[in-house]
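User: I'm putting together notes for a lab meeting next week and I want to include a structural view of one of the chains we've been expressing. I don't have a solved structure, so I'd like a prediction I can at least talk through. The sequence is below, exactly as it appears in our construct file.
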Amino acid sequence: MAVTLTQAGAQRVKTMLEKRGHGIGLRVATKVSGCTGFAYLVDYADEIEEGDQVFESFGVKVIVDAKSLKNIDGMEMDYVKESLLNEGFDFRNPNVKDMCGCGESFSV
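Assistant: Thanks for the context. Below is the predicted structure for the 108-residue chain, given as structure tokens.
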């Protein structure tokens, strides 16, 4: 399986990396958090570390550490802009069994 970006998600990452001026892709991870178990962490990737898995979507590298991969394997990330004040990544994770009411954390 893999962790992938939609075309809109990949374009957003490309734009942000260009504005930043450096970076090799997007790092996606999970951490223990919230009332249901895990939260997503999304950041720029400047290097690939030992044990990382690297996936590519529309020319953008998505880097995931081995520990997080078990929680997000098969996930697709889309970039959505619903209004001027509401935009961001939409996580389509097939492993999610439950989410908290505010949508900030999930369980697998």
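A couple of points you could mention at the meeting. The two ends are 16 Å apart (CA to CA). Residues 7-20 form the longest helix (14 residues).

User: Perfect, that's what I needed.
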